[in-house]
Every structure is written in C-alpha cells, then in structure tokens.
Write a structure and sequence with these properties.
Layout: E1 2-5, E2 8-11, H1 26-35, H2 42-56, H3 63-67, H4 74-80, H5 85-93
Antiparallel strand pairs: 1-2
Helix pairs in contact: 1-5, 2-5
C-alpha cells in the first residue's frame, strides 16, 4: 500500500514497514521517528546506520545481537527506543520487521 511521508510516496506493508528499502532516506526516517514519538539524536542515527548495515549484509537482527554489537548495549537501546525497540528502530531504518519480533 502507498503512504505519503516526508513529501514522498513510499510502499509499506500492513504494519507500516517499508517494502522497498531503496525508497528510504533520512527525511523519511525522521518522519517515521516522529510517528513513533522519538526525537532523533546523533546516537539514534548511529543505531539506525548499524541496523541498515546489518540488513544490507542479510544478517538477521535480534535484541541479543544488537547488545553484543559494541554499537549500543541493551539498556541504552531500550532507552533510545522505549516502546518495542527493535520493531520501532527497524521501522525508522526502513528495513523489514525482524523475524525475531512478534
């Protein structure tokens, strides 16, 4: 389905995740973060960059993997993305919902 966000039309699934990563840009990520009530900081963007890099390598994501990444520990990850952290961060990053998320 189509969704207009940050003056762009993007393709999303029924849960609001982008279905075409190539449509993502930082303006879309910022708009998606606003929908999630998150004010992005440079630290948030570091985590988003890490998630996107892992996605591009086709590496499955999980909370445990993120905690062992040396990018962010689990406590800080939950502080940055307090509600459903991995789902929320993945949506902002423009990547599919990880299989480890219900």
């Amino acid at each position: 389905m189509n969704k207009i966000i940050a003056d762009s039309t993007i393709q999303v699934n029924e849960e609001g995740y982008l279905t075409d990563f190539s449509q993502w840009n930082q303006a879309i990520g910022t708009a998606l973060s606003t929908e999630a009530n998150i004010v992005m900081t440079p630290r948030h963007w570091e985590v988003i960059d890490y998630l996107q890099a892992e996605f591009k390598k086709d590496i499955p994501l999980s909370i445990r993997k993120i905690g062992k990444s040396n990018v962010v520990d689990i406590k800080e990850f939950y502080a940055l993305f307090p509600v459903a952290p991995l789902k929320t961060a993945s949506k902002i990053a423009g990547i599919p919902k990880p299989a480890s998320c219900i």
